[in-house]
């Protein structure tokens, strides 16, 4: 079945929110191989999409920092060489930790570890000072590795920023997601159908 990887132009841009909408829209499984910090994104997904299948993280690290740093703080070695996609007949949504060039250990950047899953890549961008640069760098890093990523803009719209990112990257925009005052399972379900219902999935 299909595999989607949800990446971000940085931290706290809405990867878990978008992952939840994809899981809901596609009736997919969810997997975040490496979790750093609390609250756990796994717990958020469980709250947003209660009936979905969640695959256990490889590592759940306590500190809200880069995985390589968080692992060192706990004296843990992240062993990633032989990691495979979880066995499932269902579509799988995989959420990254941090940005695509975040180091996981001495050997792997996030982007290089996740490339093994032969997936469709979705980059979440949220508007802030510097987000054009961060988003374009993220998209460029993926394209240099042979990936044609798609973009989801999350939060209050900024047409000038969005136009610049699309123009200079040449990447397709999959969805524009508004900012919601409260996020719950009902909001996720409605937004999943609205933003990812077609052609990604028939509602």
Biggest sheet: strand arrangement = 4-2-6-1-7-8-9
- Count of DSSP H/I helices: 7
CATH superfamily: P-loop containing nucleotide triphosphate hydrolases
Query: Number of DSSP strands?
Result: 9
CATH architecture: 3-Layer(aba) Sandwich
Low-pLDDT residue spans: none
Q: Under the CATH scheme, which class? A: Alpha Beta
Q: Which structural class should the secondary elements be placed in?
A: alpha/beta
- Classify the beta-strand content into a percent band: 15-25%
Cα-atom radius of gyration: 16 Å
Distance between the termini: 19 Å
What would the CATH topology be?
Rossmann fold
Helix content: 25-40%
Question: SSE order, as H and E?
Answer: EHEEHEEHEHEHEHEH
Average per-residue pLDDT, rounded, comes to: 93
Main sheet attributes: strand count, strand direction, barrel closure: 7 strands, parallel
Shape: globular
Characterize this entry briefly.
The chain is α/β, with parallel strands linked by helices and 203 residues long. It contains 7 helices and 9 strands.
Please give a structural write-up.
The protein is α/β, with parallel strands linked by helices and 203 residues long. The chain has a single domain (3-196), classed as 3-Layer(aba) Sandwich (Rossmann fold), CATH 3.40.50.300. Helices cover 34% and strands 19% of the residues. It has a 7-stranded parallel sheet, with helices on both faces. Helix 1 (15-26) crosses helix 2, helix 1 crosses helix 7 and helix 5 (131-144) runs parallel beside helix 6 (159-169). The longest helix has 14 residues, at 131-144. The chain is globular and about 45 Å long. The mean pLDDT is 93.
């Amino acid at each position: 079945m299909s595999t989607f990887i949800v990446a971000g132009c940085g931290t706290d841009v809405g990867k878990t929110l978008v992952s939840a909408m994809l899981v809901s829209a596609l009736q997919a499984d969810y997997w975040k191989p490496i979790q750093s910090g609390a609250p756990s994104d796994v717990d958020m997904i469980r709250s947003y999409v209660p009936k979905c299948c969640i695959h256990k993280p490889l590592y759940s690290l306590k500190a809200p920092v880069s995985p390589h740093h968080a692992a060192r703080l706990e004296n843990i070695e992240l062993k990633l060489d032989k990691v495979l996609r979880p066995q499932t007949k269902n579509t799988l949504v995989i959420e990254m930790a941090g940005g695509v060039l975040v180091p996981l250990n001495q050997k792997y950047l996030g982007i290089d570890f996740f490339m093994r899953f032969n997936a469709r890549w979705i980059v979440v961008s949220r508007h802030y000072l510097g987000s054009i640069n961060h988003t374009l760098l993220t998209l460029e890093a993926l394209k240099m590795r042979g990936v044609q990523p798609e973009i989801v803009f999350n939060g209050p719209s900024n047409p000038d920023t969005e136009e610049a990112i699309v123009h200079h990257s040449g990447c397709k925009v999959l969805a524009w997601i508004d900012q919601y005052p409260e996020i719950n399972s009902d909001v996720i379900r409605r937004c999943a159908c609205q933003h990812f219902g077609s052609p990604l999935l028939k509602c």
